[in-house]
Every structure is written in structure tokens, then in C-alpha cells.
């Protein structure tokens, strides 16, 4: 479904953020991207939808090489990739419903998007999605009246209403408390399973990734250092990815928290 071939990114500053990355993600697979700060996780996610322009290599979404597309064709292909952001990227003064519907802007014509008149089928779908994530009652609230977890749910609905083939998720829980983080990760993974949707989730919390995904890819210095199931992430492997950090302690801390929450 998604295939990266020898993907390279060197920023104008000379930083080599990605070094010949090869990666295949089949339909329906949720993959967590881990690695230390500066490893290239955000760059990888952003090179896929060309928010960051790759230096060389290919990004195939199905049969289409996204790196070869002109701006019009790229805009169309971007509809197939929903993005979820760390800071939610909502329009604060608009309502929850308006924020969700903004995910359809790539589909409706200029005039409709200018006047924000969306087809009834889009409004119906927005209500269905808000209901699914438990925010139906919030549809008319302004985005700035919501908690962090609620905002991220709106961000998830906005990505899903695009009807994407792939979700690109950049640190979805970095601004949330541990319990809300787990709820959001669970929700993203459940929705992907329901829709047979592939996702790449850039996540710095290894324990959280291990709880929810089937596959983990570890980046170090812009290259893939590990690619396997979460239970293969032994302390040795984590040290290979991150360097000398006490990962066992980090993981135990999160497990303790879980017990406290469920106790
Ligand atoms: N716009 C930019 N211009 C120059 N260098 C950049 C730019 N963005 C990222 N880099 C560099 O590219 C490398 C990879 O950065 P990237 O943000 O992709 O890493 P990351 O793994 O997402 O890190 P973090 O977990 O801290 O967000 C780093 O060395 C970073 O300094």
C-alpha cells in the first residue's frame, strides 16, 4: 500500500535526516515509528506527503510515485493521506463540527469551501464520526472550549472524514497526560482496524507504542535500526536505537501508572 524506496533527505543546512530508507506498509497495518530526538521521525512522516520535499528516492502510495507528481496531482493524492498532529492544528474559534468538516476542503469546490457550505452527506458523516469518538454532544462547541484529549479526537475525525487510505500521525499524545494518551492511542488503533486503514505513528513513548501496535520501526541517525514486533524490543535493542538509556526503568514506570489507574 505504501512503499518507500531509498528515501533520502538532506536539509539545506547539510543535516542528513534520512539515509536510504526502505519501508513497506501493507493496508490495515498500524506501525509505530520510534527513535531518539533528531533521528528523523518527523522528517520521514513529512516526506511521505511531501510537506518536506525528499532529496531523492520514491514514495509509492499504491502504484503512484508521489515524488513525481506536480502540484495539482499531489493535492489530489494528499486527500488519501490523513494527518494527525501533536498540537491538534484545529482552528480555535471554529466549532468542533466546522473543524471536522474542514477535512473535506480538498474535495469540495472553491466556492463551497469559501462559504463553508458542505454537502449534507459530509455533515452526516461528520456527525457519525463525532458519535464514534464520543463527541456528538460537543459538535457546536468552539474548539478552544475543549480539553486536549477532546481536541485530539476532533483532529482524528478531521483526518478520517477525508476517507484516507493512510494515516500519518505525528506525536499524537505528546501534549496529553498518560491516561488520555492511552485512550487516544487505543482509539486510533481501533479506528484503523475498523476501516482497514494503515497508519504510521511517530511516538516517543516506547511503552505506549508497545501496548497498541503490531509493528515497530526504530530510527537512529536517519536509518532503520529495528523493524519488528513490539515484544522483540528488548533492552538491548532499545539501547541500540537510543544509546545508553535505562529503558527497563521507563517501561516499569508506565506499568506502575497503569496499575494505579485501574486500581
Ligand atoms: N527544517 C529543518 N532544517 C534543517 N534541519 C532540520 C530541519 N528539520 C529537521 N532537521 C534536522 O533533521 C534531523 C531529523 O529531525 P526530525 O525532526 O525529523 O527528527 P525527529 O526524530 O522527529 O526528532 P524529535 O523526536 O525531536 O521530533 C535533525 O538532525 C534535525 O536537526
Automatic annotation (TrEMBL):
Domain of life: Bacteria
Gene3D superfamilies reported in the protein's UniProt record: P-loop containing nucleotide triphosphate hydrolases (3.40.50.300)
Xref: InterPro entries: AAA+_ATPase (IPR003593), ABC_transporter-like_ATP-bd (IPR003439), ABC_transporter-like_CS (IPR017871), ABC_transpr_PhnC (IPR012693), MetN_ABC_transporter-like (IPR050086), P-loop_NTPase (IPR027417)
Keyword field: ATP-binding, Cell membrane, Membrane, Nucleotide-binding, Translocase, Transport
MF terms in GO: ATP binding
Ranges for domain ABC transporter: 2-246
Entry keyword annotation includes Ribonucleoprotein: no
Family annotation (Pfam families): ABC_tran (PF00005)
NCBIfam families in UniProt: ABC_phnC
Protein name stated in the entry: Phosphonate ABC transporter ATP-binding protein
Provenance organism: Pseudohalocynthiibacter aestuariivivens
Native organism taxonomy: Bacteria, Pseudomonadati, Pseudomonadota, Alphaproteobacteria, Rhodobacterales
Record gene name: phnC
Amino acid at each position: 500500500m505504501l512503499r518507500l524506496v531509498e528515501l533520502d533527505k538532506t536539509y539545506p543546512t547539510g543535516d542528513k535526516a534520512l539515509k536510504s530508507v526502505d519501508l513497506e506498509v501493507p493496508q490495515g497495518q498500524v506501525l509505530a515509528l520510534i527513535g531518539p530526538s533528531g533521528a528523523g521521525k518527523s522528517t520521514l512522516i513529512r516526506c511521505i506527503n511531501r510537506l518536506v520535499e525528499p532529496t531523492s528516492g520514491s514514495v509509492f502510495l499504491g502504484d503512484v510515485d508521489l515524488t513525481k507528481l506536480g502540484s495539482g496531482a499531489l493535492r489530489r493524492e494528499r486527500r488519501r493521506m490523513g494527518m494527525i498532529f501533536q498540537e491538534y492544528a484545529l482552528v480555535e474559534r471554529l466549532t468542533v463540527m466546522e473543524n471536522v468538516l474542514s477535512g473535506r476542503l480538498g474535495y469540495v469546490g472553491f466556492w463551497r469551501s469559501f462559504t463553508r457550505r458542505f454537502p449534507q452527506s459530509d455533515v452526516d458523516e461528520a456527525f457519525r464520526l463525532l458519535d464514534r469518538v464520543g463527541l456528538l454532544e460537543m459538535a457546536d462547541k468552539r474548539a478552544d472550549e475543549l480539553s486536549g484529549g477532546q481536541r485530539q479526537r476532533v483532529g482524528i475525525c478531521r483526518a478520517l472524514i477525508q476517507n484516507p487510505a493512510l494515516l500519518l500521525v505525528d506525536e499524537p499524545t505528546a501534549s496529553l497526560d498518560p491516561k488520555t494518551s492511552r485512550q487516544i492511542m487505543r482509539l486510533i488503533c481501533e479506528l484503523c482496524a475498523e476501516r482497514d486503514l494503515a497508519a504510521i505513528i511517530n511516538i516517543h513513548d516506547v511503552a505506549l507504542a508497545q501496548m497498541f501496535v503490531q509493528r515497530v520501526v526504530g530510527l537512529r541517525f536517519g536509518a532503520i535500526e529495528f523493524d519488528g514486533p513490539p515484544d522483540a524490543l528488548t533492552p538491548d535493542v532499545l539501547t541500540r536505537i537510543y544509546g545508553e538509556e535505562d529503558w527497563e526503568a521507563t517501561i516499569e514506570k508506565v506499568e506502575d501508572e497503569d496499575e494505579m489507574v485501574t486500581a
